[in-house]
Amino acid sequence: MTPVTEYLADSREKLTLTAKVVVLAPVPEALDYAVPDGMDIAIGDHVVVPLGHAKVRGLVIGLIREAIDFPLKPILSKPDDPPVPENSLHFWLWAANWTVTPPGTFLNGCLRALKVARAQVRLGYVRTGIEPARITKARERVIETAILPMGLGELALAAGVSEGVVTGLAKEGVLEKVALPFDDRIPQPDPDFAPARLNPSQSAAHQLLQMEMAKGFAPVLLDGVTGSGKTEVYLESVADVLRADPAAQVLILLPEIALTQAVLGRLKARFGVEVAQWHANIGNSSRRRIWEGVATGKIRLVVGARSALFLPYVRLGLIVIDEEHDSSYKQEEGVRYHARDLAVFRARMDGAMVVMASATPSLETLTNAEKERYTWIRLEKRHGTAVLPDIELIDMKAHAPGKGQKNEQMWLSDILVAEVWETLKRREQVLLFLNRRGYAPLVLCKACGEKMSAPNTDSWLVEHRSSGRLVCHLTGFSMRKPKICPHCKAVDSLVSVGPGVERILEEVQSRFPDARAEVFSSDTVPDAASSAALIRRIEDHDIDIVIATQAAAKGHNFPNLTLVGIVDADLGLKGGDLRAAERTFQLLQQATGRAGRSVKPGKALLQTYTPEHPVMQALAHQDREAFYAYEGMSREMAGFPPYGRLAALILQAKDQKLLDRFSRELALFIPNTDGIDVYGPADAPLALVRGQWRKRFLVRADRNRDLQGFVNHWLAAIKRPNAIRLIVDIEPYSFL
Ligand SMILES: Nc1ncnc2c1ncn2[C@@H]1O[C@H](COP(=O)(O)OP(=O)(O)OP(=O)(O)O)[C@@H](O)[C@H]1O
Ligand SMILES: [Zn+2]
User: Fold this and answer.
1) 231 and 307: one domain?
2) What ipTM was predicted for this assembly?
3) Ligand 1: which of 232, 360, 387, 592 to mutate, most ligand atoms within 8 Å of CB?
4) Predicted model pTM
């Protein structure tokens, strides 16, 4: 970052006040503009400047008074947006550099919320008094709730229904659309609203956190088994920080998937107000309101998904990263970054505490704790009388499920089926976990062997029976399932291979016809309100068997749920990327942790074809340390993270020949550097996506090497044709 130098005006020389401006465009450096006389400009101000023939927005990152011998173009105007606090600006520029992104591109992302005008009117729904033609419990709750006008999302959440129920009632005239009263007050969280009554081990953890808080920058791993009360404990630290410094701001980062009503409800119960939330599904006007509230310091507590890290905080006192191991903290599109890693840097810049909470920490964080770079606070027991579930492996080689009555393939073993019966008999609930959406992950033609895939893309189409479509989860492409093989024209020759949650539902319905079974996946609960509605029905025991993807694996407490069955424990191990074993371990640990969360003891059964695998052994023996030791050793031997650093370079082009030629040429310019190895170019595992061919390089560096410097140096050596797109991924998580 350019240091801010104010040269004193020298009386004999004509000095110009020059602003260094990062324009919101992919320009490699800050540009100089003259500050017109009488314009009041400071660092962090928004400006409009000329660039070529266009007018573009930018941010002032430095001011210098200097003698210049050529006329500079002047700043044109200053938009009326709150300036970016200086430490946030420093952080953004640093992050641009870290992710090898042009600063203007990066800042453009951070300022996206300002692209929409301030909201003037917001519309909501209120009841009219007209009776609905048909009444259901859900509709009744909406009508009861809508005494005063409320926004669509809020109303659906408050009534615990999906948004469709609200809009349906509006269509019938039971609700009407009205303008909501304008309200720009920001409710302040009250740290003393409802303090927790911590148990002794939670209190001890809280006291350790208080000691850390006094240190300024303090990275902490809050490591506790599922249900031990990590959330209870860190909420007390949030309260401590808010109380200690009336200007301090707090950010709670959650995986996108965990931003449910359950968590928001807990925050509201603890602090007495709706906490500002930031994630993919908030509206544009809230986005702007929150951005401005954070930049002016009026919003002191934010809960959000990874991108909430790039809000313009004035003074951060604490960042909490809940489920710090979760891979959704890694942004995989556009600018690629890891929110956890960057959050630690941000905390260091602001002298803030950063608490990483998890029952299954990432190997990176655990290693930092072991090496005492992070303070390690542990919670060993579940709160109250709840105990961890018994975990047993089912060897599927010996218990392969047979065929059903109509000769259909079955997926649940006799042992699991018997255990489900027992659980249902006790009137308790079952969760069957399979991290695969839809009906079948693959559809192939039994006549010609053709595997159905999206046009110009290397990934298989997933069959969704509920919608009758074949869907590409990578590109979003979808089509009706054809009657005729598009390849060989055979009729009715397409067969579904392998199970997804919909297929398990089918099996459950045929095996347990009296049980109420439902799928919990991002397809059945696409938004917060419908997810809240489903969670409520599970809590109310309106459902006996939940068939779930990872959408349900986290965060929820279902007191009557005592059996978790993992349909395919080996699933995540395939594909062989760096973190496959670690991720499988974490996900299964989370999923099995859903069982027996209150007074009734729980049990988890894992169906596996590789019971001897270290992941399965560690899960069965509840021996986390054994797994991490094994995993750490194999990473250390290869020099992979956390024992080394990685960067991926992904090249994409429509023209395969051009791509081949350029990647071979780029390989010739690999700088020869000690402690850094480059692998590739290789075809990406998904070598063709949406008609774009893809090649990859992988850079591995020892920990003490300047990885970004190496990449920049290398890329500068050769000019890349415009027809080739380059993605730099520092610390890649996806190897596709
Ligand atoms: N001191 C306490 N007093 C009352 N209830 C508590 C206390 N500690 C934990 N609980 C309850 O126990 C359950 C688990 O607590 P919490 O969600 O904080 O644990 P966690 O460690 O964050 O769990 P997970 O790993 O699943 O996210 C919650 O329902 C919570 O309300
Ligand atoms: Zn065919």
Assistant:
1) yes
2) 0.96
3) 232
4) 0.84
